[in-house]
Write a structure and sequence with these properties.
The chain is α/β, with parallel strands linked by helices.
């Protein structure tokens, strides 16, 4: 009996095991494979969306184009690009460089994202987070055939089509001055800060154009606080040292005033509590209002916030007539009265003027040939410099009806690159004919008629932003004809401002570094050390 029962139990157990095996669910797909697939799709969407938002699809398409060999490129038209700012870099990014013999010349080997420069002056961002190495950028964007030379162009011979360059760096070799021939020259050297011939501005002011300016301004502000803490310093001297003047009521001046106020309230007051009530940030503008290119409701919003701020003074209708080491003289444009304004640090952001290179080229071409203004190189609707064959100008060094902004310069560079790409064969043919032509005969000009037959540049305005401090910003999103306007202000606009600028940074590296800097500032605050 026991043997029978044991046999039945074994048989039943086998059937149960067989049934449980047959009913076991099929193995599921690994979750990590699904997540990896979803992540890949999202990454590809973000990557493609970035190109679409910034209108850079032509750069992506160019990677799949059959390119000329280096030997063929060497024989193409010589294109020399001066400068490494918004216009020049936009041109290089969109130019099919294998179809030209391209050389880029600039005294600095990096691109600087200037709209965020005020943030770097107070430590909201590290300045290297908004810098992009030119050589790395050229290689990354598929422009391997473009050559970069770190030097300053000091002379342009528009008759013989050559430029003279000089190495202005601290380290020099046996050769520091050299010449380069060109067939097409693109001048994108920007502008310098205008002093309007006012005595003392160049000697005592700090400008805001380079990383050296950022470091100098930051150290000067901190030095003023540390000097004010020296025992025995008089109250009058403390107030002078802690008076920070900003001359220029445009976006740069307003944004710096806002950033400095943030730094003061969030970080400096904790380190120097006894000095907080003595600080004065004075924004000076010669016109009746600041931010003259913005809509009036936005201007009123900013002015009212600044007036209500105990640390910010707003001085309008005031013209600087002289700057001394520790004070300046202001003249009221309505009454003509003069008054003395002491200061500890002075930031001058009051406008642009052409660089010496541009001024000398304007003189060389002459007013009789179309260069009849000292405000920049006069250009036509195709960015051709008037009176000079084969020279083009972009950005702040060009004079036209367009505003001198990064947005205009970037679109100009993109347009000119497309124009050059379409005319690359004609430019090369013209260069070869000129090289073999008799110098006594009339110069060959195949390109000009083709340029004139092309579509002229049309600027598309995407809006203007300005940060005003205290996590507030303004946005003026008027259309080209100004028939419709969209204006925004406040915290939501601040988030939009940061989002737009983040999208406009030129690399994942920049975006990552800027994002980390913003996060560090939010958690740990800004650094108040010098050096």
């Amino acid at each position: 009996i026991n043997q029978k029962m044991f046999s039945r139990l074994v048989t039943a157990r086998g059937r149960i095991q067989q049934r449980s095996l047959s009913e076991a669910p099929a193995p599921k797909k690994s979750k990590w494979l699904k997540r990896a697939a979803i992540g890949s799709v999202l990454a590809a969407a973000v990557y493609l969306g970035d190109y679409i938002i910034n209108d850079d699809l032509d750069i992506l398409q160019d990677r799949f184009r059959t390119k000329l060999t280096p030997e063929e490129t060497e024989k193409r038209a010589k294109v020399v690009v001066l400068g490494s700012g918004w216009g020049s870099l936009s041109l290089i990014r969109h130019l099919q460089t294998d179809r030209f013999n391209v050389t880029m010349v600039s005294p600095r080997n990096y691109f600087l994202f200037t709209p965020l420069l005020p943030s770097a002056t107070v430590g909201t961002l590290e300045v290297r987070s908004i810098m992009e190495p030119i050589r790395y950028f050229l290689k990354r964007s598929g422009s391997e055939s473009a050559r970069f030379i770190e030097a300053d162009c000091v002379e342009i011979d528009h008759v013989n089509k050559t430029i003279t360059c000089e190495d202005m760096s601290e380290v020099k070799g046996t050769i520091s001055r050299f010449s380069l021939p060109y067939d097409q020259l693109v001048v994108g050297v920007g502008a310098q800060t205008a002093t309007f011939g006012i005595p003392g501005v160049a000697e005592h002011s700090i400008f805001l154009r380079s990383i050296d300016d950022v470091q100098r301004l930051r150290n000067k502000v901190m030095d003023c606080f540390e000097t004010a803490m020296i025992p025995g310093q008089t109250e009058e001297e403390k107030r002078r040292l802690l008076s920070f003047l900003v001359v220029g009521g445009g976006p740069a001046g307003v944004e710096y005033a806002g950033e400095l106020n943030d730094w003061l309230r969030s970080d400096i007051e904790k380190a120097f509590p006894e000095l907080a009530d003595k600080v004065d940030i004075n924004l000076i503008e010669a016109l009746p209002h600041i931010l003259n290119f913005f809509e009036k409701d936005l201007v009123d919003y900013v002015e009212n916030r600044f007036i209500a701020n105990p640390h910010i003074s707003l001085t309008t209708n005031a013209r600087v007539i002289r700057v001394e080491e520790d004070h300046l003289i202001l003249q009221n444009t309505q009454t003509g009265e003069d008054r003395k304004v002491p200061y500890g640090a002075l930031l001058w952001v009051a406008g642009n003027t052409p660089r010496p290179l541009v001024q000398s080229l304007i003189t060389a071409i002459g007013a009789e040939n179309g260069q009849d203004t000292r405000r920049g190189l006069s250009v036509d609707e195709y960015f051709r410099v008037k009176g000079a064959n084969g020279i083009w100008a972009l950005g702040d060094c060009a004079f036209s009806s367009l505003p001198q902004t990064a947005q205009v310069a970037s679109q100009s560079g993109r347009y000119l690159a497309a124009l050059f790409n379409n005319l690359s064969d004609a430019m090369t043919k013209e260069a070869r004919l000129r090289a073999s032509a008799d110098p006594e005969t009339a110069p060959v000009d195949l390109v000009s008629p083709l340029v004139t037959a092309s579509k002229p540049f049309s600027y598309r305005h995407y809006g203007s932003f300005a940060y005003i401090g205290d996590m507030r910003a303004i946005a003026d999103l008027r259309t080209e004809g100004r028939e419709r306007k969209f204006t925004f202000a406040g915290l939501g606009t601040f988030i939009l401002w940061r989002s737009v600028y983040m999208s406009k940074l030129l690399s994942v590296r920049n975006r990552t570094l800027v994002g980390i800097d913003w996060l560090e500032t939010m958690i740990f605050g800004r650094d108040i050390s010098r050096g």
